[in-house]
Amino acid sequence: MTVKIAILSGDGIGPEIVAEAIKVIGCLRKHYGFQVELEEAQIGGAAVDTSGEPLPEATLRLARQADAILLGAVGGPKWETLERRRRPEQGLLAIRSALGLFGNLRPAILYAELAGASTLRPEIVADLDILIVRELTGGIYFGEPRGVRTSGTGEREAYNTLLYRESEIVRIARLAFEIAGKRDARLCSVDKANVLESSGLWREVVTQLSGEYPQVELSHLYVDNAAMQLVRAPKQFDVIVTGNLFGDILSDCAAMLTGSIGMLPSAALDERGKGMYEPVHGSAPDIAGRDVANPLATILSLAMMLRYSLNQAVLAERVESAVRCVLAEGYRTADIHTAGTRRVGTREMGEAVTAALRAVAS
Ligand code: NAD
Ligand code: IPM
Ligand code: MN
Question: Residues at site: Important for catalysis (predicted)?
Fold first, then answer.
């Protein structure tokens, strides 16, 4: 059976890093008999430039039809002054919401070869393997009402609403308990229950649900402490479950534990396991178009796609071991360059992964 992958490259380094993941897909097709069809569509600033909308109807249609979606990144200074609903980021939020991609898995794994690249001491991060489960279609990102208005005193004020429904909390917590049960069975729920009503409900609902998962050890942390603990002693965590905004911030923080944000993949899943896969990082306008971006987060996102949406766990492992292999051979993009290693650009890194994958096939 041929699977269909929608390719949404987006802006900035998006097209450069996605091009390398496409090379990997080409290699899987040629050397591993992976039957796949790719179809590209526009999202973000690129879509705004051609159609005026960050998520054109045709892109959403393709995303709905496809078996899985690979996304690069969106956004950049060119579009920052547009009215908010036309900005590239709104396209990303809209596709997540329209497809019901509530479950965002953001693993932070330290590859042994990169122990020296982390800003933390090697013994603090050695063998790190944690997973942040971020709620992706609710919370303050989507709560209504929101807006900017003039107050009674004539001053401008802006407001957002942080709202979580019980059903949304149950859904993300259940996903996190299920996944934790297949890992080290330790789940830490992160909230701000000492201050926020929405977090109070979050904690209550997660605690109640834990009754159904007696084998998973549940703990709770306030988000400020969690941020500190992540850099103090990250290995105390196995799975972290948290809301949309806290998860966004904590996952960039976790990224740095692994050496570079250019290493962190992610999956955004709906209730049936269909998903959109994208690196955790953004469009990196500061390095776009220079063949220096790290494509590994995107290639590792492809591996997550193979595992979670396409039922190809063996191919996923092959891709991940090819990445491990090029790191062991010393290939490093500028973001993770360490002494005594081989500095390469985006394309060369992608080609090295493809070559490693091909070598194992034959
Ligand atoms: P960013 O993640 O794009 O960049 C942060 C820093 O990390 C930059 O110095 C960048 O050069 C570096 N970096 C990021 N990815 C890298 C890679 N693959 N290889 C090497 N270095 C890398 O975050 P930002 O600068 O805050 O945001 C830039 C734009 O991206 C904004 O418009 C923002 O809204 C957007 N954004 C998009 C997504 C997404 O599409 N999922 C995620 C985050 C930010
Ligand atoms: C991410 C990004 C997005 C988010 C932005 C670009 C909308 O930062 O995927 O982490 O905040 O979710
Ligand atoms: Mn982010």
Answer: 141, 192
Q: Is there a single domain that holds both residue 173 and residue 207? A: yes
- Whether 24 is in a domain gets the answer yes
4 forms beta bridges with 37
Summarised one tens digit per residue, pLDDT across range 65-94 is 999 999 999 999 999 999 999 999 999 999
Of all protein residues, whose CA lies closest to atom 20 belonging to ligand 1? 293
For 328, list phi and psi in degrees, rounded to 5. -65, -30
User: What's the pTM value of the predicted model, to 2 decimals?
Assistant: 0.97
Choose the final residue of a domain: 231, 257, 283.
Answer: 257
Question: Cβ < 6 Å from ligand 1: which residues?
Answer: 13, 17, 73-76, 89, 92, 261-262, 278, 281-287, 293-294, 297, 335
Q: Residues 334-357: pLDDT tens digits?
A: 999 777 789 999 999 999 999 999
**SS3 sequence of 303-335:** HHHHHHCCCCHHHHHHHHHHHHHHHHCCEECHH
Mapped onto helix, strand or coil, the DSSP state of residue 223 is: helix
